[in-house]
Specification:
Layout: H1 8-18, H2 42-52, H3 58-66, E1 70-71, E2 78-81, E3 88-89, H4 97-101, H5 110-121, E4 123-124, E5 126-129, E6 132-141, E7 147-153, E8 161-163, H6 166-181, H7 190-207, H8 211-223, H9 229-240, H10 258-270, H11 278-289, H12 293-305, H13 314-327, H14 332-342, H15 371-379, E9 417-423, H16 430-434, H17 447-453, E10 469-476, E11 481-486, H18 501-504, E12 509-516, E13 528-535, E14 538-546, E15 549-554, H19 562-565, H20 572-587, H21 593-597, E16 602-608
Antiparallel strand pairs: 1-2, 2-5, 3-4, 4-6, 6-7, 7-8, 9-11, 9-12, 10-11, 10-16, 12-13, 13-14, 14-15
Length: 629
């Protein structure tokens, strides 16, 4: 029902032929009522236009010529559209104009201005409704001269629904008529058969990687309420917008899909974003849909503590396990390449699953699925299907360390950070080198969340107030260094600083870098930058730069000479960037940006980076809280 030409006689005739009463209607006489009336003569339409003082838009004129009014079957609160002799100007009987005008503000959008003026100039079409109005607006027109139609539901308290033309409104009402009856076994006709065929075709197209065509077919089928269209459509939409939750209905009732779908359904309550009655309500809803309450509770708990693993069977499952092992140490680009190469070997457990949706719920692998990578999944032929392979999405991690000083889209640069690199060891060995007593790796979690949730010194028994124990994210660089990174500390690189580099180097070469940001208060502390390098427990060289003051020790390589890197006539950001680039070039240091800013990594708490105050040294500790009300 698209295109320039539109056959109203065929469209309305099909609607009449397919009409059956809705569940809320009772046709006692068993007769199919006439939804329309005989078309109006041209003279009748012209007379109406002369009475109104305006020529009616083309799609509405053509409708009147075929049917002079229409029974809309209570869809959206409007029951009956009048004929040419019934329509009249609305004239804002409820005084809506001032309500909408007062909310326009100083710089209103064009659509808001049009809506505010619509109430005074609109043409009212309905003659029977439930506090609802179908209003054609001659002030809101398109290039073809069509008037927008606003459907105002007075009982809803919401903004009117806008349709670009009368024809668009009638097509929407026809789709609504179908959707209201889609659950009925006796509602079968040519349109339902066509839409059900579209759903089947969309499944095959989606598996072939032709997701855009499948998306279009499923969106149309959903508008007609066809069974199965919503859960299929939501899978495509979920991968195109991986952070937007989707509803998978009763798909958890089928054991073939439970392992994929239930964890995805649990993602929202696991993040603490479920607002409808808490865990009990969600668990009850899953039980009502067919998932055992105990199973749902176990999945929710595993997602919360980071222990959930997406573990599909077969070659795809083996690739998933290998990718997780790479991603949990920060190699997210390598992990994605493993998944991308294995996608053609993914097999659907049944016709209702179009893609490996369960990947999104894995705490390590789920963050890797960006919208671009979601499109790559959908564009890749899978489940035994063939077709063109999409161009690979570029890697997301830049080389080196320069990204620490750069402003990425929609976020600030990492302002303060500190990191320990150790060469030639497994990252799992870092807690034994620099961790506090009894330190162990946590489950994979977002580094920022781990830092925020860690107790402060005054909240921990046996920890002195002067101590600065960092919560660090752990991983392995592309060059093979194990790293422990803290990018969320608000502590300062002061005179009590004690570098962990010697302890870290007991197994080989180690490097420590700490950047302390400039104080936000005028005239306060300048930014500081520290580097120390050690090997086999012996410090080789170190320097600390505070403003124009430089402290140094050992034989510092020329490429890392702080006097060369931190020039007084350059800005602090330029100096920082130069130092980070030199560290990458001279020592081969890097950090995985994606894993540290958007992914999940293991964490642990280090020993204090601050030594105890000596005799005569002062130390202050300030906490700021909010008074209760």
């Amino acid at each position: 029902m698209s295109g320039e030409a539109f056959n109203w006689l065929e469209f309305l005739g099909r609607w009449q032929e397919e009409w059956v009463p809705g569940d809320d209607l009772n046709e006692d006489d068993g007769q199919t009522p006439g939804l329309g009336r005989p078309g109006a003569d041209e003279a009748v339409i012209v007379a109406a236009e002369e009475r109104l003082g305006r020529r009616l838009p083309a799609s509405y004129r053509e409708f009147l010529a075929v049917s002079d009014g229409w029974h809309v079957d209570q869809t959206a609160g409007v029951y009956q559209l009048g004929g040419a002799a019934d329509i009249d100007w609305f004239r804002d009987p409820y005084d809506m104009t001032p309500l909408y005008e007062e909310n326009l503000g100083d710089n209103p959008r064009e659509e808001d201005v049009l809506l505010a003026g619509m109430w005074q100039r609109a043409l009212r079409l309905e003659t029977d409704s439930d506090m609802s109005h179908a209003l054609l607006d001659p002030g809101d027109t398109d290039q073809d001269g069509e008037w927008a139609l606003y459907l105002y539901k007075g009982w809803g308290g919401e903004l009117p629904d806008r349709y670009p033309s009368f024809r668009a409104y009638m097509e929407a009402m026809y789709r609504g008529f179908h959707a209201d009856r889609a659950h009925r076994s006796d509602f079968v006709n040519a349109t339902t058969r066509v839409q059900d065929t579209h759903v089947k075709d969309a499944v095959l197209l989606a598996l072939q990687g032709r997701y855009e065509v499948a998306l279009s077919l499923l969106e149309e089928a959903r508008s007609f309420g066809r069974p199965g269209s919503v859960v299929l459509l939501n899978q495509l939409r979920h991968l195109l917008a991986p952070r937007s939750p989707r509803d998978y209905g009763n798909l958890v009732d089928d054991p073939r899909y439970l392992a994929e779908i239930l964890p995805v359904e649990a993602m929202t309550p696991a993040r603490g974003e479920w607002r409808l009655g808490g865990d009990d309500h969600w668990l009850g809803m899953m039980a009502a849909r067919g998932a055992a309450r105990r199973t749902a509770q176990a999945v929710l708990g595993a997602l919360r503590d980071g222990t959930h693993h997406y573990a599909p069977p077969g070659p795809w499952g083996r690739a998933v396990a290998e990718a997780r092992e790479a991603a949990r140490w920060g190699a997210t680009d390598a992990a994605w390449r493993l998944l991308r190469d294995a996608l053609p070997r993914w097999k659907t457990p049944g016709p209702a699953l179009l893609a490996p949706i369960g990947l999104l719920a894995d705490p390590v692998l789920g963050p890797l699925v960006t919208p671009e990578r979601g499109r790559e999944i959908l564009a890749t032929p899978r489940a035994g299907q063939t077709g063109p392979v999409p161009e690979p999405v570029p890697d997301l991690d830049p080389p080196g360390l320069a990204w620490l000083a750069e402003t990425a889209a929609n976020r600030q640069p990492v302002d303060g950070y500190r990191c320990v690199w150790v060469e030639g060891i497994d990252p799992a060995g870092l807690p034994a080198l620099i961790g506090e007593e009894g330190a162990e790796l946590s489950g994979p979690t977002h580094p920022r969340r781990a830092s925020w949730q860690a107790p402060k010194p005054h909240e921990r028994e046996g920890v002195e107030l002067w101590e600065d124990r960092a919560v660090v994210a752990v991983g392995r660089t592309a060059e093979g260094w194990a790293f422990a990174f803290d990018g969320h500390s608000h502590r300062h690189l002061h005179k009590l600083f004690l570098s962990p580099v010697q302890r870290a180097s007991s197994a080989g070469r180690a490097v420590v870098v700490w950047r302390d940001p400039r104080s936000s208060s005028p005239g306060e502390r300048s930014a500081a930058f520290h580097l120390s390098v050690a090997e086999q427990g012996e410090e080789l060289y170190a320097f600390t730069v505070r403003g124009t003051e430089i402290e140094r020790s050992g034989a510092i390589p020329e490429a890392l000479d702080p006097a060369r890197l931190f020039r007084p006539d350059d800005t602090e950001p330029d100096c920082e960037l130069r130092a980070l680039e030199a560290l990458h070039t001279e020592l081969g240091l890097s950090l995985p940006r994606f894993a540290l800013t958007q992914g999940s990594l293991h964490t642990f708490t280090t020993r204090s980076w601050t030594r105890a105050p000596r005799t005569g040294e002062g130390f202050s500790y300030v906490t700021i809280g909010r008074l209760g009300h």
